[in-house]
Write a structure and sequence with these properties.
By secondary structure, the chain is of the alpha+beta class. It is built from six helices and eight strands; from the N terminus they run ββααβββαααβββα. It folds into two domains: 152 residues, 2-Layer Sandwich (Heat Shock Protein 90); 91 residues, Alpha-Beta Complex (Actin, Chain A, domain 4). 28% of the residues lie in helices and 25% in strands. This is DUF3298 domain-containing protein.
Length: 282
Amino acid sequence: MKSTRILLPSLIFGIAGGFALTGCIEQKQTAAAEPDMLQKDTTVYLQEGKETPSCKISISYAYLKPASEKDSISRLINEKIQEEAFGKQYVKLTPEGLVSALANDFIKNYNTDVKELFEADIHNGMKAEDVPAWYNYEYQIKTALEAGKDSTVWNYSVVNFQYTGGAHPNTLAKYMNINAQTGKLITADDVFRKEDNAKICSLIMKELIKEVNKKMETDTISSIEGLQSVGILLDTDIYIPENFMLGKDGVTFYYNRYEIAPYSAGDFSLTVPYDDINVYLK
């Protein structure tokens, strides 16, 4: 069986610490700065004139459009997004340059993975109708940028979907919260009081039980034992994840597949209302 791996052109997942700005750039941001979106869709083929095998690429990139040339905060925010979501090598690219670079990296990875194997199979007499499905790749990046809590926070999410020939696709999501005034990443340590972690986890558990009952179309699960009976939280206790979002109405905690449950259970997005959690926030 062909092994599966997910390409993260350093893509996506490690939270960096502080952010240093050097030079003498005046930091200003006006209220006119607003989210914008770039879309790129392309398909590449291993054989000229043939529609299969192919690699489909779809990139939706949300970024903050600066209000003016002096709006350095919006540029800081975009650089932080590009660093955290895609990797340090993409930090200084323009939004248009970023999208092109990501697409080119996916194409390069596709050709590196399968082109030589495919050409060898064709040389050895493989017929078009016998081409294995795993020669077909698909990459999707979907992002969203919107105002969060009290309009002092920008919420950013990036969902990276990849099918690279394995038993099933892989999807990984990352949430970010960025200070709208400074452009700095807001971490869990900045938000949650450590002494109240257990109480916060209790609130998350309550929402998890609700969500599992909803997914399974039942109302019989009411405890951790009930969750474990359906395969959830077998290998870990509930915890505050790195993926959280300070939304307008509450804090959303996000768990990717495999983090608290098997692949078949899917991902979990659990929102705790501010009325319940505010007392435990810094």
